[in-house]
Design goal:
Blueprint (H helix, E strand, L loop, with lengths): L1 E3 L2 H13 L4 E6 L5 H13 L2 E6 L9 H6 L4 H10 L4 E3 L3 H4 L18 H4 L3 H16 L3 E5 L3 H14 L4 E5 L19 H6 L1 H14 L4 H13 L4 E10 L15 E9 L2 E8 L3
Parallel strand pairs: 1-4, 2-3, 2-5, 3-4, 5-6
Antiparallel strand pairs: 7-8, 8-9
Helix pairs in contact: 7-8, 10-11
The structure holds pantoate.
Pantoate binds next to strand 2 and helix 7.
Length: about 280
């Protein structure tokens, strides 16, 4: 596995693979890799000749300096994992390599980026669009892989791809979970033992709400989820929104979409966890 630290080397490597007729799959990550990331790599491995993974904690998408400071960084372990997952190249740039000067681009991401995470974390999605568009321009992959835990992020990236006219297929991959249902996240390592014990309630309540939703309104279902999660000691919901999965806009009636998705953010102590569930309609 090649370990690449410079943009020039990354471009040269990808250009030569493309010239050899090889398709390229890109898996953008912020490191602290877990089985969720590896499932993206496995999918990319099956779909492409070459798999490139980027490991970069992108400062422009953090609206909270403390979150950026404490974000886990485990480069050596990440590289070992990626090598055993048969990744061809890992791109591990320094911040100055990606941002030799401040990125002042503002993307017109529209309504999809204005709700939920976009509202709670001002600037976050613009930062995601900045880094992902840079990586796309450097690698020019055929396909790029993202996990559905960050459900809204995928919709935002699709919008950015449309705006920038990238010819890249965005592949969304199912959430990976611990055996007790907790969605895998790099932030899980920061949970206290009490937080870790409480956190599986998030997925349990979301799953139970599918049955509840069958004979209750959108609003009643949202309240059901919020009340039950908040009723678990150590958990506090920041928001729960049931949205049209295509547009991420909130719905009031189940009939408004054939793709209703509930998205939740929960604090377990000071660790912010996100998850989501698809309702049948
Ligand atoms: O989902 C993530 O880990 C990040 O937001 C991404 C897509 C790698 C951009 O920094």
């Amino acid at each position: 596995m090649k370990i690449i630290r410079s943009v020039d080397e990354l471009r040269a490597y990808c250009n030569s693979e493309r010239a050899a007729g090889h398709s390229i799959g890109l898996v953008p990550t912020m490191g602290a890799l877990h089985d969720g990331h590896l499932s993206l790599v496995t999918k990319a491995r099956g779909d492409n000749d070459i798999v490139v993974v980027s490991v970069f904690v992108n400062p422009t998408q953090f609206n909270n300096p403390e979150d950026l400071r404490t974000y886990p960084r485990t480069e050596e372990a990440d590289c070992r994992l990626l090598e055993s997952a048969r990744v061809d190249a890992v791109f591990v740039p320094a911040v100055e390599e990606i941002y030799p000067e401040p990125d002042i681009r503002v993307f017109d991401l529209g309504p999809v980026a204005e709700v939920m995470e976009g509202k709670m974390r001002p600037g976050h999605f613009n930062g995601v669009a900045q880094i992902v568009s840079k990586l796309f321009a450097m690698v020019m992959p055929d396909r790029a892989y993202f996990g559905e835990k960050d459900f809204q992020q995928i919709a935002v990236i699709r919008r950015m791809v449309e705006l920038e006219r990238f010819q890249i297929e965005i592949v969304s991959c199912p959430i990976c979970r611990e055996s007790d249902g907790l969605a895998l996240s790099s932030r899980n390592v920061r949970l206290t033992p009490q937080g870790r014990e409480a956190a599986p309630s998030i997925h349990r309540v979301l799953s139970e709400s599918i049955g509840y939703a069958r004979d209750h309104s959108v609003k009643e279902t949202a309240n059901y989820v919020i009340d039950r999660i908040n009723g678990t000691e150590g958990l506090e919901t920041e928001y729960y929104m049931i949205v049209d999965g295509y547009t991420c806009q909130p719905i009031e009636d189940w009939d408004e979409t054939d793709y209703p998705v509930g998205c939740v953010t929960v604090y377990a102590g000071d660790v912010r966890l996100i998850d989501n569930i698809k309702y049948q309609n």
